[in-house]
Amino acid sequence: MDKKKLYIIVGSAVAGTLLIVGIVAAILANRPSALLVSATANTAKDFSRLEVIQFAQQVSNGGSVAVSANLDKYVDDISIQGKIYTDAKNNKGAYEMTIYDEDDIMVQPRIYVGRDSIVGTCPEIFEGAYGINFKKLDKNLPGSIFDPDEDTDYSLPESVYDYLMSLAENSKGNKELQRDIEKAAIRYEKYTLQTIVKYADVTKTSDKITVGGDKISCTVITIELDEDAIVSICQDIIDYINNDKALEDLLYRYYSANPTSNISYYSILYGYDYDSDPEDMVDEFYDEVDDFEDSLDYIEDMSIDIEANVYITKSGKRIAQVDFESEVQGEEFECSLVLGKNVTKTKEMSFSYETSDGDKFSIKYEVEQNDAKGFEAEIKYETYDPWSYYRSENKGKMTISWDKKSGDCEVKVKSEYDDLTIKGNLTKKGDKLIYVLENIKQDGSSVGDVKSLELTITIDRRDPAPKTPSRYTEIILMDEDDFEDLYEEIEEGIEDLEDEFF
């Protein structure tokens, strides 16, 4: 990649990042930005009131999702169900797979996941419970059959071993350190906003827009940035970082408490040996800041113009639309987000973008009906990729219809390449949302065996996760003989089930 394109990419990334921050809470010192902050908060609150959002939050904080199917056509009287319990608020959950012989449980393996441990049970195959305590990994792993230095049949690769040891450090946590990190993040967010205030150009006007057939009177907040403003903002933030002794101390404390925090997926996959010395890791952080400062000279020589127009409803003070456009070294980019007067009642939402080289994308969501009787909506999309071999253009739409009384639910997807119809039954029963798949048609032809499977998805917003067994055998502390005995017990248990049922 030549330097010109590199500078354009760097400049676009920096400008885009700063603009996003500016749109959310820019210019807190004057009236237009106070209005913008208020409108953003109101709109976010509206999203949280959406029924689907509230339902999802309840499920994630104490509910479950189950998928079941009837396999009778393939194996007599056999059905299967997979179920996930979620409790994000308390950092725990459970996963189970149940195979039924008519109404009797044939086998039910279950995994319990908590903040500090993972435990597995399956009474039909092996006795008791087996698990791993993350908080004790640094104590239990060294000298175990999984230690690379022990050279056993179960010794882990060095990279995996180091990663597991890092889990022990992270699971112990450090509340004081975490609190200081959160305080630093708030401090830097505030300073960034103040810096944007210092250099951005903000104006306020009025306009009317039409969304979903509704005419909406709006206050328009316009935010503008050029290359000089971007460079000045970045330089001030860099200077603030370099003069922030508290940040340096915080980084050292963090890397000291998490000496293997930079061991990642890639280190496990490729076995990289990362430097874990806290001072070296802090120095690396400041080296990256210096590299970024060196790039500001290139950004300063670029031609950058960025403008965002935020349309705020005069009634209710919600964000109804955001239009954004930029020109970086002659390359243009435009995008628009339309939300309407209130997202909980809007009949239309859309997003689109277009570049000067012809790359396009748009998606529009329109609601025909949403009341106690039923729901009907349509989603249209359009894409154009000028860089593909065929300069591909694709258009399509999805229609959704749901009779809330009968439960009949139909989804149709149609485009140049697809013609798909999915029929099912969607009902609400107390805290449960139950969907039964009835038929799938691809290009007008039904997919076989769909109805006989009775594929059912049950989402329960109040279904507490089962409690983790209080007593379990720590796998890390098992010797080779015990570990092999467990393996043989599992193997024999599976064979016995196969002989009995299959």
Extended strand count: 22
DSSP helical segment count = 12
Rg: 29 Å
User: What structural class is derived from the secondary structure elements?
Assistant: alpha+beta
Biggest sheet architecture: 22 strands, mixed
Distance between the termini: 60 Å
| Average pLDDT figure | 84
Key terms for this structure?
502 residues, alpha+beta, 22-stranded mixed β-sheet, globular
Give an overview in words.
- With 502 residues, this protein is an alpha+beta fold.
- 36% of the residues lie in helices and 36% in strands.
- The protein is built from 12 helices and 22 strands.
- The chain has helices at residues 3-25, 31-49, 51-60, 137-140, 158-172, 175-199, 227-242, 245-257, 265-270, 278-300, 450-453, 480-501, and strands at 61-70, 78-87, 92-101, 104-107, 110-113, 117-121, 129-133, 201-211, 214-226, 304-313, 319-328, 331-338, 348-355, 360-370, 374-384, 393-403, 408-415, 419-429, 432-442, 445-446, 456-460, 473-474.
- The protein has a 22-stranded mixed β-sheet that branches.
- Strand 10 (304-313) and strand 11 (319-328) form a beta hairpin.
- Helix 6 runs antiparallel to helix 7 and helix 6 packs antiparallel against helix 8 (245-257).
- The longest helix has 25 residues, at 175-199.
- The model is unreliable at 1-30 (pLDDT under 50).
Topology:
Blueprint: H1 3-25, H2 31-49, H3 51-60, E1 61-70, E2 78-87, E3 92-101, E4 104-107, E5 110-113, E6 117-121, E7 129-133, H4 137-140, H5 158-172, H6 175-199, E8 201-211, E9 214-226, H7 227-242, H8 245-257, H9 265-270, H10 278-300, E10 304-313, E11 319-328, E12 331-338, E13 348-355, E14 360-370, E15 374-384, E16 393-403, E17 408-415, E18 419-429, E19 432-442, E20 445-446, H11 450-453, E21 456-460, E22 473-474, H12 480-501
Parallel strand pairs: 7-22
Antiparallel strand pairs: 1-2, 1-21, 2-3, 3-4, 3-5, 5-6, 6-7, 8-9, 9-10, 10-11, 11-12, 12-13, 13-14, 14-15, 15-16, 16-17, 17-18, 18-19, 19-20, 19-21
Helix pairs in contact: 6-7, 6-8, 7-10, 8-10
